[in-house]
Design a protein that fits this description.
Belongs to the short-chain dehydrogenases/reductases (SDR) family. The protein is built from nine helices and eight strands. The protein is an alpha/beta fold. The structure holds nicotinamide-adenine-dinucleotide.
C-alpha cells in the first residue's frame, strides 16, 4: 500500500473518540472503525442497548457508557469515562437519534400529531446532540493544541430530511433542521479553542439498520430518495474520517 495512504488510513491511532448511538447502525460502524484503526472509543448509548456486549467484543480500547444523551449527569459520566480510561477526548460523533412517522393531522381518525412525540424527537435529536457537544467541548478544551492549534473535532448527524422531509416527518425534519442550524454558530463559538464542528447530512443507509424505521418504511423511503449505494455504513465512516482528518473543513 502507498505509504501516505497507509498513514492516512491509520492516523486515528492513539486518538480517543466518543460516539453516541454507538451500539447500532452508523454509530456502531464508527466505533468499530475507530478501534480497528488504533483509536479508543467510548460507546454512549441507552442502558438497554447492545453497547456493553459490543464494547466487550472490541477489547480494551473500547468502553461502554450507558447514557441517555438528554441527561446532563449521564453525558458528564461518559465524558469522564473517556478521560479516566483513555486519558483524553479528541473526537465526538453524535449518532444517537430517534424518529416518529406521523402526519400532522390524521383526518381519518380525527387525531392530531401527538405533541409529546414531537417534543421527544426534538429533545433527543437537538437537545441531546447539543448536550454532548457542550460537554465534549469542555473536555477537548483541556487538550494541548497541536502545531496547527487544533484540540478536537465534533461531528453531528443530520439527514436528507432536514432539507427534503417526506410525509409524516414533521418532527424528524424539524429536529435535523435544528442540528443543521446550530452547527455554524457552535463552530464559531468553539473555533477560537481549535475545536472543529461539522454536521454530516446522511441520505439513507443502503443497509436497513435503523432501529426506529420499519423495513416497509425504509424500502419506501429508499426508493424515493436514494441512488444505489448512497449512505452505505462504510461510506458514512469514510465521511467521518475525512472530516476529522481534513483540518480545513
Ligand atoms: N440510517 C439512515 O439511513 C439514516 C439516514 C439519515 C440520518 N440518519 C441519522 O443517523 C443517525 C444514526 O442512524 P442509525 O440508522 O444508525 O440509527 P439506529 O437506530 O441504528 O441507532 C441509533 C442509536 O441511538 C441510540 N439512542 C436513541 N435514543 C438515545 C438516547 N436518548 N440516548 C442515547 N442513545 C440513544 C439507540 O439506542 C441506537 O443505538 C441518527 O441520528 C439518524 O437520524 C440515519
Amino acid at each position: 500500500m502507498n505509504k501516505n495512504l497507509y498513514f492516512y488510513l491509520t492516523a486515528e491511532a492513539g486518538m480517543v473518540g466518543l460516539v453516541t448511538g454507538g451500539a447500532s447502525g452508523l454509530g456502531r460502524a464508527t466505533v468499530e472503525r475507530l478501534v480497528q484503526n488504533g483509536a479508543s472509543a467510548v460507546i454512549v448509548d441507552l442502558p438497554s442497548s447492545d453497547g456493553q456486549a459490543l464494547a466487550a467484543s472490541l477489547g480494551d480500547r473500547c468502553a461502554f457508557a450507558p447514557a441517555d444523551v438528554t441527561s446532563e449527569a449521564d453525558v458528564r459520566s461518559a465524558v469522564s469515562l473517556a478521560r479516566e480510561k483513555f486519558g483524553r477526548l479528541d473526537i465526538a460523533v453524535n449518532c444517537a437519534g430517534i424518529a416518529v412517522a406521523v402526519k400532522t393531522y390524521n383526518f381519518k381518525k380525527d387525531v392530531p400529531h401527538s405533541l409529546e412525540d414531537f417534543q421527544r424527537v426534538i429533545n433527543v435529536n437537538i437537545a441531546g446532540s447539543f448536550n454532548v457537544i457542550r460537554l465534549a467541548a469542555g473536555e477537548m478544551g483541556k487538550n494541548e493544541a497541536d502545531a496547527d492549534g487544533h484540540r478536537g473535532c465534533i461531528i453531528n448527524t443530520a439527514s436528507v430530511a432536514a432539507y427534503d422531509g417526506q410525509v409524516g416527518q414533521a418532527a424528524y425534519s424539524a429536529s435535523k433542521g435544528g442540528i443543521v442550524g446550530m452547527t455554524l454558530p457552535i463552530a464559531r463559538d468553539l473555533a477560537p479553542m481549535g475545536i472543529r464542528v461539522m454536521t454530516i447530512y446522511v441520505v439513507q443507509n443502503v443497509e436497513k439498520t435503523s432501529s426506529f424505521m420499519s423495513s416497509k418504511m425504509w424500502k419506501k423511503r429508499h426508493s424515493l430518495i436514494c441512488r444505489p449505494k448512497c449512505g452505505k455504513k462504510v461510506i458514512v465512516w469514510h465521511v467521518v474520517q475525512n472530516v476529522e482528518k481534513n483540518v480545513i473543513v
